[in-house]
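Risk register update: the risk that structure generation would not scale has been downgraded. Supporting records follow, first protein first.
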Amino acid sequence: MKDMMSRQDADAAMGEETALVFKHSTQCPISANASREMESLLGGGEPVPVYRVDVNAQREVSAYIAERTGVTHQSPQVIVLRGGKPGWNADRFDITAQSVRDALGLASPGA
């Protein structure tokens, strides 16, 4: 998982064929739950490039992502980018390892 620190990092994510953007707050218990779900997803390796945005430390980057994708900012939030465009997104308690797997078209572990 790569920390997204700048607009250039956001542009790099949007330049990928498929990428995952995980926006979170280090100060929010709901974000802590979403982080555990992301760790579960990534336990077997990164299926696609994954970019993490700390919305408290990188407010400008978070706002830039919302502006570029047209996806209203939430935290925590996951956005699946396909060819630079949002293909799927979820926020708060809708972020689960399984929901992200499904959005990426990945098989469940052990399947």
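Supporting record for the second protein:
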Amino acid sequence: MSEFRRSKRKKPAEIIEVFDTMTEQSVGRVSNLSETGMMLMTGARLIDDALFQFRFTLTDANARTGAVEVGAHHLWSDEASVAGQYWAGFRFIDVDPEDLARIRSWIERPNGKYV
């Protein structure tokens, strides 16, 4: 099977919890991340086609952590194999250049697995 995505997607080796900055509530955990979007595992079905402002923390190759904020468009959701769990796909629509650099650095780290 050929890969048609424009950006590399990486599955984290660590747990990365994602928060909605408007409610300060946890939305889910990163399943994979690219510089253009991410897939989350969530505990609730999200509203289709909704816009979100998310915050999550990434660790760079030097073990420094930093918060990343992104504006994201919810593209799809699907039930996971575990009852009450959902997969959700997002496209980033607003990322500060410093946060984009932090995402790129995290993707290029030698841990985790590309998907």
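The longest helix spans residues 97-108. On this basis the risk owner (M.S.) recommends closing the item.
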